[in-house]
Amino acid sequence: MIRTLIFLVLALTLSCVASLHLGLRVYAPETVWSALNGGASTEEIIIRTLRVPRTIIGALTGAALAISGLLMQSVTRNPLAEPGLLGINAGAAFAVTVGLTVFALSSPLAIGALAVIGALIATALVFGFGLTLGPSGNTGPILLIGVTIAALLASLTQVMLLLDETALETLLFWLSGGFADRPLIMIWGGAIALPVALIACASMASGIDALRLDDQSAQGIGVGVTRIRLAALTLAALLAAAAVAMAGPVVFLGLIAPHIARRISDGSRGFFHLALITMLCGAVLAVLADILARLIVAPGEAPISAVLALVGAPFLMYLLRSRRAVAL
Predict the structure, then answer these.
(1) Domains in the chain: ranges and CATH
(2) What are the backbone dihedrals phi and psi of residue 289, each rounded to the nearest 5 degrees, phi first?
(3) 124 vs 268: CA distance, rounded Å
């Protein structure tokens, strides 16, 4: 466990260092070091004001989405659960679009608040419909419900943007997802949400571990299944909302990171240790994906969600095929 954490911390550190050096222009280590110490040349200002913030936002976004995905997968017992696939990102994006087009709310704080509201409403819709399906609503059908709601909200978002050209110009870049040129005040949302999430994960760890059993067995050992599930899903929605507020809708990170964490961790350690590993995996993946987004279409820059989809889509198909094989 300790070795895994040390390895991931080193990987995250190296990824962040690489993020400061690599891009359309590759900067020498001495230039980066001078920038971090207050250098005033053009290159040093670019590093300090552009690359440092996007690296921090990338790491925080990846960590938040990773823990969000882990919480969803754990309490629903569905390895395919993820904020993007279950419509939570789409709900946050739709709420932000409504706020801008209908109420002309465009401040960073308003965007953050709207993202939280939209994420919570989307979560309530998805899992509310899931509960109407009975016990099976916690497994396969919940994914179909989430994808359907995500598609509906995404369509409504596009319609609203097409009706308001000003909003389209304002939100088009944000809706594509990315870590560059984001309001720095949003960093505080992620910086506050992650420690709170880890504390909450520690307090809920024993209950979530018990949910590995069926609901009746968990209730039999004194676990409040409904309470734990509701608290975990609310926390997952809030983390996804913080990520959307910082970086816009980013998909597949919440799906991939928990599975990687499970494969490199000691499963006997319990949920909280898995949450720590998942958080670091998500941060590393996000920073590496951001570096790749700068390089693969240089001198342009690819949307971060497109880069993640290159890995996430095949991974999702692998998971779907694996579940089908188990079912057969």
Answers:
(1) 2-327 (1.10.3470.10)
(2) -65, -35
(3) 32
Q: pLDDT tens for residues 156-203?
A: 998 888 887 777 777 777 777 788 878 778 888 889 999 999 999 999
Cβ(286)–Cβ(61) below 8 Å: yes
CA distance 69 to 243: 12
The reported pLDDT for the residue numbered 84 is 87
> Could you give the angle at the alpha carbon of 287 between the alpha carbons of 282 and 292, nearest 5°?
125
Check: CB of residue 253 under 8 Å from CB of residue 282.
Answer: yes
Distance of CA 100 to the CA centre of its chain: 23
Please give the Cα distance from 320 to 43 (Å, whole number). 46
The rounded distance, in Å, linking the Cα atoms of 322 and 307 is: 24
pLDDT digits (tens, 9 = 90+) for 200-252: 999 999 999 888 877 788 788 878 888 898 899 899 999 998 898 888 888 88
